[in-house]
Description:
The chain is of the alpha/beta class and 466 residues long. Helices cover 45% and strands 14% of the residues. Strand 3 (226-232) and strand 4 (236-247) form a beta hairpin. The longest helix has 17 residues, at 173-189. It is globular.
Amino acid sequence: MSAGNRGQLADFLRSRRARLTPADVGLPGDSEPGRRRTPGLRREEVAELSGVGVTWYTWLEQGRNITASPQVVDALARALRLSADEHRHLRELAGLATAPAASGDDPQARLHRLVDAATPNAASVYDVHFDYLAWNEPYRRIRHDPAGLPAGRRNLLWMMFTDADNRTRMTTWDRAARALLSQFRAAAGRHPGDPRFVELTAALTEASPQFRDWWAQYPVRYFRPARIRIRHPQAGRITLELFQLRLEDDPGLTMVTQVPADPVSRDRVAALLAGPPAVPGRRDPAARAPVLVVVGGLPATGKSTVASALARQAGFTFVRVDRIEQAIIDSAGLRQPLGPVGYTVAYGVAAEQLGHGVSVVAECVNPLGVTRDAWRDIAAGHGARLVEVELVCTDRAAHRERAQTREVDIRGLRLPDWEQITSREYEPWDRGHLVIDTATRTPAEAVATILAAIPERAGHVSADPD
Length: 466
């Protein structure tokens, strides 16, 4: 890009930013009207809408010698609501090939007509960065509502790795999430240095331990025909077959259609869509579902401290297996170990609370696949959103010191010593879950991380607004 073109590009971007208001792009207005010193949108608002860094966008408007990829230029065109001719001019100023031929119609409206035509099948369209561009009502009601994601985070990867409600619904979340990450990795490899890929990767690495661990393994896999199974809170179990289609007039866009894979799933989807749509101003029934947070991990990793603080801060009922087991021992004169009795009682208490729409934090070692499956079944059986947490302490010396110095907070409870902790049966996890290292995070930071993973933090169920 020549110096002259950089100057024209900067002038053009500033002029198009100045003509828009926050309301034009779906952003809230200023709390104090008349105080906005910048005409039109602010630079940081354009950067957020297009998914690029504020500094990078500022440099672009300053005419600095930086590279603008086709994907980023197209994202800026969408954020600035450019017409087809303006979009073409922007690409020419950036030294890029001409944008896809204009159809004489609003591109966004055209995409919405496309996904709407796929009804009753769920359909969505996203760009090369996996940012959502359009979706239909079946997609919103069967899978997820991208409109509920924050601006700049309406992205398929962000939904998959940070939305606990989606994770609870998917019976094989880890397999689907790994496959999606592999496709994202392959796409990022085709666009080295693309600032949107860089920004998304950094944000997901910070937000999701699973993404961070799997990304480091450098998985690469292209789309393959697949089926996903979900537990829908209203429709029940549904199996969907995925079809991925490229748009010939804009190969950077992808449409994914999710088709019921069997007669039972087809009937359940039809029944769901035949029901009343969400009323404006009211939350979707799934959003009112209670939450079950299971905090597990070996003794002396900080479970009780974190789980009790989480329950207080979120307003959830706290169920602690150690306290249940000690109460049984005290009342019946029994001796440890009790076997599965404490867990069985905890399952019942949690199920009773969830059945009344009350969210629960359950604290236990949760050492086996069978205990983890039991918690998952309880959540699914009561339409609850499940957040599975494992606390670990990677600093072995610190873990041992905690085990040797911690104080008993339940009268009569016999704490395991270090040898009992290290020799305890504890099966590796076989599915995605939230892992927090208490060697590097304080209890308050651990609580904040868990709260961030809880969608629509509701505590006890509240009434719908009138």
